[in-house]
Predict the structure.
Amino acid sequence: MTVQHTAEIIDGNAIAAKIRGGLKARVDKLVAAAGWRPTLAVIRVGEDPASIVYVGRKVRACEEAGIDSRQYVFPADVSQEEVIATVRELSAAPDVHGILVQLPLPKHIALAPVLGAISVEKDVDGFHLYNVGGLVIGDTVFPPCTPHGVMLLLDAAGVEISGKNAVVVGASNIVGKPMALMLMQREATVSICHIKTRDLAQYTILADILILAAGSPKLVVGPMVKRGAVVVDVGINRMPDGKLVGDCDFETVKERASLLTPVPGGVGPMTVTMLLANTVKSAERHFQREKGQAERIGEPEPV
Ligand SMILES: Nc1nc2c(c(=O)[nH]1)N[C@@H](CN(C=O)c1ccc(C(=O)N[C@@H](CCC(=O)O)C(=O)O)cc1)CN2
């Protein structure tokens, strides 16, 4: 007789709320010491409905954590030069500690020069090539928010990563690729599947840890999942009836997995929380540099 269990659901909202509490305490401490608040600049181009929702969530989360935010909203036909000029200004502004450019951008704007104009010290999304390079060697200041959020969810749920088979479905620059690097850094054996992968199930069935980030509803169904696997669903798909679903068929995967994240309420809140974490970190680093400068100014002249 086989006894079957349904998966325990990882509550991303609860884990995110706990982390945000700690971040708020760090903000209060910094404000008391520095006399200024961490400040995040958010650039949004066009009126993509999902981007409006996500930016709204980020701004509200900043408010709740005591972080100031400034929004720069451009029409969809703004020139690439204008966006880059704004990013450069914000990069040089001493009272801005984090800059994010909400993605996707309209097609006529090339991503690389926009992201390249963000000061690496303010790159709270971790998308600048310098920070991407840091991630490759396992030493980055600003880890990208969604995969970092996934790692913290796994840690909070007590999932052992070292030595496990991890399969990442989706190879985007902002989730799949950095996710694979982070899992590899923690000594998982990592496979990446993508749009051209043939017979996806032959990979997913081997996964102890399965990360879904393809943006395709019901891509993975119960029989494709190893019994007892940990499944993290990063997919966000808006269905015609307005319902939000992930990349897995929740009901059938729940019967196979040991742990499963829901959509909504799983990875999404962690993405926003990791943005706050990177912004607070950036502001603390700014304060340390400022303080170091003040100490140097106060030093006696060498005789
Ligand atoms: N500059 C960036 N752009 C984008 C990123 C990013 O990390 N940086 N990631 C995604 C979207 N994203 C953040 O911007 C994001 C996705 C999901 C959520 C979220 O809170 N989801 C909720 C449901 C929200 C809803 O009702 O639609 C959940 O899953 O519970 C926040 C942010 C692309 N662009």
User: Anything to note?
Assistant: The chain has a mean pLDDT of 96.
